[in-house]
Amino acid sequence: MNELEKKETFVRFGGNFQENLCQLMFEDRPFFDQVTEVLDVSFFDKKYLQVFAQTLVNYRNKYNTHPNLEVMFTLLTTELNHHDKATAAAVRNFGARIKTSDGIEEAAFIKDKAIDFCRKQVLKGAMLQSARLLKSSSFEEIEKVIKEALVLGTDNNFGHDFRKDVFERFKHVTRNPISTGWPRMDEIVKGGLGKSELGVVVAPTGAGKSMVLVHLATQALLKGKTVVYYTLELKDTVVGQRFDCCITDVPLQEHKERQKEIVNKVKDLEGTLIIKEYPTKSASVSTLKNHIEKLRKRGIEPDIILVDYADLLRPPRSTGEKRHELEETYEGLRGLAQTYEIPCWTASQTNRGGLNAEVITMESISEAFNKCFVADFIFSLSRTVQDKQANKGRIFIAKNRNGPDGLVFDARVDWSDVSIEILDRDESAEGMMTTATQQRILQEKYIQDIKSK
Question: Could you tell me if 285 and 335 are in contact, meaning their C-beta atoms sit under 8 angstroms apart?
């Protein structure tokens, strides 16, 4: 027997690889369709994995539908009686491990390696068959055999198949939200910004967009997340100082004097923070993507990204229409969030109408209103002159795909130590009245005083 005729298996990839491959075949219907075009269950070197894979294949062939977890467990409970007890027990134990699994981290690698191995085995078989056909000079048949072998196992994910993927529509979709650090906001947005979602902070110039982004990033960092913060306006060290103060509550003006205190508090953080600076309009969404890929090659997997701020990114193409360029930039950012399945926060500047507004609505968003359509969550921060003097402001929930919007929260805002806090309802009602409310109360008090005299 020559090398070409030798039967090969997945044995060289190891047991964990084979178990993960079986799990992916069960959990990922499009991948199952692709790999089973070229897979022979005998490629698995363990009997229990062969049985599990064959059970899955048999169900698909019979019902033309991919089983969900409940159906698969029923199959493993009722359809293994013709196997010996040891094999049946091993199959069921494997199924139980899948049920409690948190997912497979190296799924893309496993899929690529498995498809590559299986396709090579199919091509080897085609070559052996072609060698036999050469004796009869059947060149058309040889061409057909080789072409079919090359086509099998190619990507055939054409989308969500309404009939085959019926169970997919009943699965619980996990957003894995990252908290905003404000319980009242987390309550309405179902835990925070979720994976693949784009959140936008809207504020006029000088109101503190960057400070809000630092607050949001800090909340993720304190939860042990890996945070990547892109700054397109300020130096990375300046942004880093803001993080120091936000984490430690040290006022910015005391940053240098309290160096030892800050260093001691920051060094034990469980999370990872990468601050990457780009000159204004020098970086595009593609630039950010390339940077993320470099981080991933070094083993740094971002859990959340923040862009300070999107309006300062270079557009993907120059159209001469700023509103169209901004719209494409925001679409690109949401695409970035979807690609890496992580939340993405950015900020947008209001037009002049929002400069001294008590509540900033989406109508005040500068240049491109269409970018509102792309975002999943938008909130604004408004601060009048009187608000800045009193260290207060108002947060307006302008858009929320995951809950109610149109809500206004009073906030305590103090940029001296980069702190912003949404007040409880009682605090808000008593101590954080809007300027208009304060004026109305003063007018009523003045009228009552006049009448009493």
Answer: yes
